[in-house]
Amino acid sequence: MSENENAKGKANTPADARSDAAREDGGSAASSPVRAFLRDGIAWLNTNRIFVYANIVLFFFLINGVAAASGCRFDFTERRANSLTSSTATVLAKIDDPILVEAYISQDVPGEIQSGIEPLLGTLREIDRVGGEKINLTIIDPDSEESRKQAEERGVQGLPIEQRKDAESNVRVAYFGVFIQQGETTEVLNLIEGEWFVQDLEYRFLRLIKKFGRSGDAQSGIAFVQAPGLSGATAWQQQQDQNKDNYYGFRTVLEDEQGRVQDVSPLDPIPAGIETLLMIGLPRFEDIESYHIDQFLMRGGNLIVLAKGFEFQMQEPDPRTAQFGLGGNAGIGFAAVPGEDLQRFNEWLGRYGVVVNGEILFEPRQGMPIYDLFGQFVRQFPYAAWPVYARDLGNIVSDNPALAPIEELVLPWTSSLDLREAVQPNVSFEVLIRSTSGAVRRDGASLDYGPVAEVGSGAGDIRTGEAAPMAVFASGKFQSGYSEETLPEAADPARFRSGQAGDTASNLVVIGTPYLVSDLLLRNQAGLQVFGINRAFVLNLLEAVQGDTDLIAARSRVPALARLDPFFPESPTLQSAFETLFTYFHVLAIPAILAIFGTLRLLRRNQRRGLAPESAPEVLATTEN
After folding, report:
1. DSSP-H helix ranges across 213-304
2. Which domain holds residue 551?
3. Which long-range contacts (CB under 8 A, 24 or more apart) does 93-98 make?
4. How many CB atoms sit inside 10 A of residue 78's CB?
5. Paired residues of 99 in beta bridges
6. For residue range 49-61, what is the model confidence (pLDDT) as tens digits?
């Protein structure tokens, strides 16, 4: 490029720039008000709280709508209480014929009842979603004469509901039941038990579906061992029949779930149809009885032992005072170890790797808060003879299928166990539950409430020093506890099995208390909650040893016990002081916090208005100087 051209270019550049700028200004002049309006509008919207909050709400509903349409849901409740367990998919996957489900649920009810209906409707809809084509769900509001007649024809009975409005009240009939049909088999599932809605609808529904798959007189393959010293299941004739050594309530539940349960005497060989024996108590076996149970194990049978390590009696209330709600002369007697009977039992049980310690075990820091069993006291207090063992406290230490979904258990009046693993080298021993290292052992003690409250505060109390096994699950190929030289006289040597042959294996479960699911627990609401938790565990064990784990997850979803973490001091006096302190703290803390907050806020407001305290002028003058 020549110098003239460079000079010409330099001369023309400012003019060209001004010309371009003029053109740009001219072109944007018309659009600048629009841009300014949009810019100011967007800035206003971004700073307007009403607009921002409205968008957040709309976004929330949009996300929920998309999630509902896609079947996506999140359950943030404790232990996922509003979600189905894996049991639903497992059970429904095994059915062939579709299931008709008609839920007759009244909608026009008071608000407090409506709040209990919604979770049930959610559970039914979720079962319908998981079941797909196998579940045909219809939710019907019996608000017409025709629909009410249909509900009653299905077997759903109406309940009177009183509704009040101002000074008027009327009574109407409401329906809360589910009609279930598969083929020719039908059942009605009531949604109200007692005075409120059922809390375990999923489990009850699946239990009925499993029941459809067996005939009415089907055998469960489970039997109670009958022998001196063992507990039975006697039908209740009076309240006293609901005692610590009766298991009629549990047996009723078991037969409803599994089919007919038998009673067997080991005086004869165990029948071939029996798969699992349930032994509760401290048996006084004859030699031939022990031998027949041994041979039952050798053929591949399962044995669950709820063992009794000590004996005691309970004095029932005087009927003349009990009718007025008073306990009378009720009480729990002195507990002692039956040395000879327990030693003989352990000589037999020890051949399979487990023995029961002759002791009364107390947990001073993990006793269950209970009312007394006879209604003598109003307040609850921790009862160290009923320890609460929980997974988060390090007591439940196993992920065995029967125990994996369970977070806590109560072991009423229990003893610990010892393992003798070397005597059964082909068997694996798994500890399910352990005590604390601070548990107290005694070979004799009063089990009444006052003396038990003092356990752990004396210098002479014997501590375990380490966590002791409380429940053991042994599985594998057992060797017989007998040899050809030690067979009982009545035994047939030609049929003797010295061990398990081929693929045969057995399960042995031993727990140090016979009161896990005792009828005694069915007397009051607190006991019913314990019964529900322990019932799930024992039923899980029975199913696990028989190889059926379909219902375990749903059954194990039971309401948790209300408990405080065991950080209280072991002294009963100090523990009572802590309880009083916490009581007043919960009563007074919130009013005190509100009072302090209100005072500080008032002081700040007065300062802003110039109503400072008297010392404020002096401070101001000092600052100015």
Report:
1. 248-258, 287-298
2. 219-570
3. 94/550, 95/134, 95/182, 95/209, 95/212, 95/213, 97/182, 97/183, 98/133, 98/134, 98/135, 98/136, 98/182
4. 7
5. 135
6. 787 788 888 888 8
DSSP β-bridge partners for residue 179? 102, 188
**How far is the C-alpha of 262 from the C-alpha of 292, rounded, in Å?**
17
Contact by Cβ (8 Å): 527, 520? yes
Q: What is the pLDDT of residues 64-85, one digit of tens each?
A: 777 666 655 555 555 565 689 9
Concatenated DSSP letters of 281-298:
E-----HHHHHHHHHHHH
Closest among 317, 192, 249 to 522, alpha carbons compared: 249
418 and 530 part of one domain: yes
Q: Domain boundary residue among 55, 72, 89?
A: 72
Position 375 scores a pLDDT of 59
DSSP strand pairing (440-442 vs 360-362)? antiparallel
The residue behind tokens 């010392």 is 615
Nearest to 536, CA basis, from 388, 402, 389: 402
Residue with tokens 């051949």: 351
Q: Could you give the CA distance from residue 313 to residue 311 in angstroms, rounded to a whole number?
A: 7
Burial 333-359 (b: 16+ CB within 10 A, else e): eebebbeebbebbbebbbbbbbbbbbb
Distance CA 554, CA 123 (A): 12
CB contact at 8 A, 137 and 84? no
- Are 72 and 83 in contact by the 8 Å Cβ rule? The answer is no
DSSP state of 237: S
Q: State the DSSP H helix or E strand holding residue 59, giving kind and residue range, or none if neither.
A: helix 49-69
User: Over the Cα atoms of the chain, what is R_g?
Assistant: 36
Could you tell me the two tokens for 281? Answer: 């108590």
Same domain for 128 and 101, yes or no, is yes
* Residue 392, SS3 per DSSP: coil
Say whether both 68 and 82 belong to one domain: no
The per-residue pLDDT for range 346-384, each reduced to its tens digit, is: 999 999 999 999 999 999 989 988 776 665 555 677 899
What was the pLDDT predicted at 82?
66
Specify whether 369 is located in the same domain as 406. Answer: yes
Domain shared by 565 and 421, yes or no: yes
Query: What's the whole-model pTM score?
Result: 0.77
Cβ contact 268:323 at 8 Å: no
Bridge partners of 170, per DSSP, are: 163
- 327 and 260 fall within a common domain: yes
